[in-house]
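Contributing new records

If you add data, match the layout below exactly. Sequence lines come first and carry their own label; structure lines follow with theirs. Keep one chain per record. Anything else will be rejected by the validation script.
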Amino acid sequence: MEKDYFNSNKKVWLVAVDMGYGHQRTAYVLRDIAFNGRVIHINHYKGIPEKDRKIWKTVQSFYEFASRFRRIPVIGLALFLFLDRFQKILGYYPKRDLSKSGFTSKIIYSHIEKGWGRDLIEKLKKTPLPIVTTFFTPAFMAEQFNYPNDIYCVICDADISRAWVSLDPQKSRVKYFAPCDRARDRLKLYGVKSENIILTGYPLPKENIGGENMEILKKDLGYRLLNLDPTGKYRKLYRPLIKNYLGELPKISNHPLTIMFSIGGAGAQKEIGIQIVNSLREKIKTKRVRVIISVGVKEEMKKYFASHIKDLKLDGWVHILSGGTINEYFQKFNQALRTTDILMTKPSELSFYAGLGIPIVIEPSIGSQEDFNRRWLLHIGAAVLQENPKHTDQWLFDLLEAGDLAEMAMQGFVEMKILGTYNIEKIIKNG
């Protein structure tokens, strides 16, 4: 529900890019502060010049091609690693000055200097609200074409490449919403002025939090812990900690043990999902576990999974979650998360959803930024690496019996900055 105190001059132009789900998911969560409640997709808004569309189409094609081609042994991996070099994140240590711009940034700015993005920025200038973008390129465009209001960029990963920062960060007026300490500190190494970095936390869905007191989150986590700790080992050992954060837990859970397997926008890991379902087949048939396969908005992904599970006779305990539109999909996804106990996903922006008290089983990462998200998740203790998916029925239930997944759920909840959405709203409101 939209906040009453947001009048027209306390709204923003909310800008995202339609490539994968990460930048759009982040924008969807922030829709309450968007003017007219809409997200502007910079790569296919109404009236976009054909020359701009072609550049974005090329960028998107490279992204999807590299993600899918990576699965081809040797050749595919070699090509992917070559392309990934252009967004590679350098090691954090030893700490040093990393402000010098790289090849990727220079290419981006060369296109902007030739007019890439000018059309949209000129349109937005007619009603010059602050700009909040979940991708770095629109921020650079707004600054380059002298946008007359604040420019904010939301970081969607725990660590980022140098490409997220302008050519001359000391002179830049782009302000960053950082999701975690590591992203904040990385921006400093890249030369961004401290006053332009705001540690907010990643924006998580309000419907999964329930206000700044986190009523919904705490209630859902209480039910979830019962499923994640079937032997009671974790609850017995950490009873004071649980009571301090959640109060008294309910007697029984409000849902069966539920796993969500999330497919990325490029659909690069669909085979893993089928292996997991096949491994859990007997446990699904005996109603020991329910599986949600989250496939997004692509009809071919929905058909792929439907065709592979139709002969397994799993009595509806495997559900394919999809949407006709991206907003419908995100709405269904967030609702399903409330009764999800374990999230299996590559370490994308969904890494931050561990903050909702959902342990992450990390699928193989795709790209440098996901490698760093994986390290960060493991560092804070909110996730575990996926073992052989063909034996999920063994290793996953060993983790359950030991109470390890319950511990990861609490670690994510305790260690992450959960109120990013509310923090960003307050910053915009106070302007």
